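TA notes, week 10

Several of you asked for a full example with nothing omitted. So below is the full record: structure tokens for the whole chain, then the designed sequence directly under it. When grading your own attempts, check the secondary structure regions first.
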């Protein structure tokens, strides 16, 4: 376990030197950071799932599906029937409202690189979350020890 927590200014503070109100403030800060990091982790997982779904969708555009009727999304909840005409190319959303025509292979490569990029970020974020959780657990142990010391000091 870490014996000190690192603040944003890279200044190390030994948490055993802090009093209980200061420890409580550090605990609140760590809990807020953990909440934010966990939320970011969830959002990245959702984005990764969407890109994986895109990969599956691109794989469904095959020559044997040419001229078959499919449902084309106009919005998130509105689909209209249509027929596949060009099964060699797809339109890829590259972000901020821009769309690019790509071959199926290029589209697969694009989405797979997005999934890999997010996987790398998820791994890094998971490590950060684990370190923050370890710091919080250590802090809680220090707080409990200080509370027990105060309680035994008052009782004696």
């Amino acid at each position: 376990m870490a014996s000190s927590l690192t603040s944003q200014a890279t200044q190390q503070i030994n948490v055993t030197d802090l009093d209980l109100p200061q420890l409580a403030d550090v605990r609140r800060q760590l809990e807020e950071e953990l909440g934010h990091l966990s939320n970011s982790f969830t959002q990245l997982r959702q984005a990764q799932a969407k890109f994986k779904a895109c990969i599956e969708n691109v794989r469904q555009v095959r020559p044997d599906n040419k001229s078959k009727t499919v449902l084309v999304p106009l919005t998130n909840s509105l689909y209209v029937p249509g027929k596949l005409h060009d099964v060699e190319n797809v339109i890829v959303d590259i972000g901020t409202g821009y769309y690019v025509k790509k071959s199926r292979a290029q589209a697969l490569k694009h989405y797979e690189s997005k999934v890999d990029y997010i996987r790398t970020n998820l791994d890094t974020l998971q490590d950060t979350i684990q370190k923050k959780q370890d710091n919080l657990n250590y802090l809680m142990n220090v707080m409990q020890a200080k509370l027990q010391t105060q309680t035994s000091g008052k009782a004696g």
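The mean pLDDT is 89. Use that as a sanity check on your answer.
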